[in-house]
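EI: anyone free to look at a 316-residue chain?
SC: sure, send it
EI:
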Amino acid sequence: MVNPISLIKHAFSPTLVYALVGESGTGKSFRSKLLAEQYNINAIIDDGLLIQDEKIIAGHSAKREKTYMGAVRAALFDDKEHRDAVAKVLKKAHFKKILILGTSEKMVMKIAMRLQLPQPSKIIHIEEIATQEEIEKAAKSRHVEGKHVIPVPSIEVKKSYPQIFSNSMHDFFSKGFFQKKSGKGKLIEKSIVQPEFSKKGRVEISEAALTQMVMHCVSECSPDVKVKKIAIKTDSRGYRLVVTIDVPFGTQLTGKVHKLQQYIIDKIETFTGILIEEVSIVIDKITKTDAPAVQQEEKNKPVLSRRSLARNHEKN
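SC: here you go
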């Protein structure tokens, strides 16, 4: 007989979230099954899918998307209907432990937030569980051959995504991290798929294009702010932007700068699918407004127009 007290404790105990982080094509999906077994993890979230016991129970795979940007958005659960459907299943199942896969710590944190899960309590990097040789082999399979992995048996992929299914493989892990932990080897099946977007080549965004996007975001969010310089840095975790600006005298800096930072991040991530790891705002100068010119312009405006603007300002 099931103890009712145990059921109540299970229902209210928080989900423990783990994360596996690594660059695209380094073998995260393949090794996720081994990692889940090692830590007794009940479910895996990978590329838009919720997987339990080697079965797809919710979501849709980013690998079915026709474009690279579409795949990124699916992996990030950008679509409300998609993320709500998965969050509903997660809430009902109430898994004790969940593993989230992502290309950066920011990505897995964003996925956890969107699916209404706690932030990861343990983050594992692919370099901790795979050798450099294994990572390079996985990268070659991804970038040269266009092959991707879904960590479920082939029968599951054939049933849900027959159009992208390519092959299945069985690998036996008899050494390394998992053998040391468990004392024995492990036979793992993986499904190999070839998405439409991987057949068409990579999509990259140049620094010039990204700079234009940032300037457009600034002009939309804060038209009175002048952009003087934009520096862009990239690494495995995403893009880091440094935006140098001039602001007019009298600007409430704290609120305006924070709003501008968030606006740039949200707009660029939504429209491009790339991850913005950080936006730093550097204020170079506080500029003076031409008071006499402004006053003269105000005098020339109809009274009704001035009042209308004042009301709009108060509402904002």
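EI: The chain is about 45% helix and 25% strand.
SC: 👍
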